[in-house]
Design a protein that fits this description.
The structure is a single chain. The protein has 3 helices and 7 strands, in the order E-H-E-E-H-E-E-E-H-E. With 147 residues, the protein is an alpha+beta fold. It has a 7-stranded antiparallel sheet, sandwiched between helices. Helix 1 packs antiparallel against helix 3. The longest helix has 19 residues.
Length: 147
């Protein structure tokens, strides 16, 4: 579990709880939350390199709709997610309002069902409200946490 420095305790708890639930209750292997172009959470199997959102993430944010890539091997833009986790078979890119993204990488191709996608969308909506209440996420480096 990696949480950004300087987050309010209530947000830290929400991020820790929600990411743990996604990892336990869905086929998720990795969960990441970006807000204001800053990684505020990474949990699960983590790559050594920082994640940089690309065109697919931009499309999800622009359209304000989730993009579910059920089999990354079939998508030419799959390299965007190598730094999330190498050889990731599936990923869901869920917007969190206009300033954030929830990324959920799956264990296998076509692993996320309708219920998983509803849960991801619901948690993103909850995070949007929580994150919008912040004046601005403060700067700082990621802080590794046990979890």
């Amino acid at each position: 579990l990696e949480l950004a420095e300087g987050l309010p305790e209530a947000l830290r708890q929400e991020l820790a709880w929600g990411s743990a639930m996604l990892l336990k209750a869905t086929p998720a292997a990795v969960v990441a939350v970006l807000h204001q172009d800053r990684m505020v959470l990474r949990r699960g199997l983590l790559a050594e390199t920082p994640f940089l959102p690309g065109a697919i993430c931009g499309q999800a944010r622009e359209r304000q709709r989730a993009i579910s890539l059920v089999n990354l091997a079939l998508y030419p833009g799959r390299d965007e997610f190598k730094t999330l986790l190498a050889d990731l078979p599936a990923v869901v890119v869920q917007p969190i309002g206009r300033e954030g993204l929830l990324l959920v990488g799956g264990w296998s191709a076509r692993c996320f069902g309708r219920g998983d996608l509803i849960w991801i969308e619901g948690w993103a909506a909850r995070l949007a409200v929580t994150l919008a209440a912040l004046p601005e996420v403060s700067g700082g480096e990621r802080s590794p946490q046990n979890g």
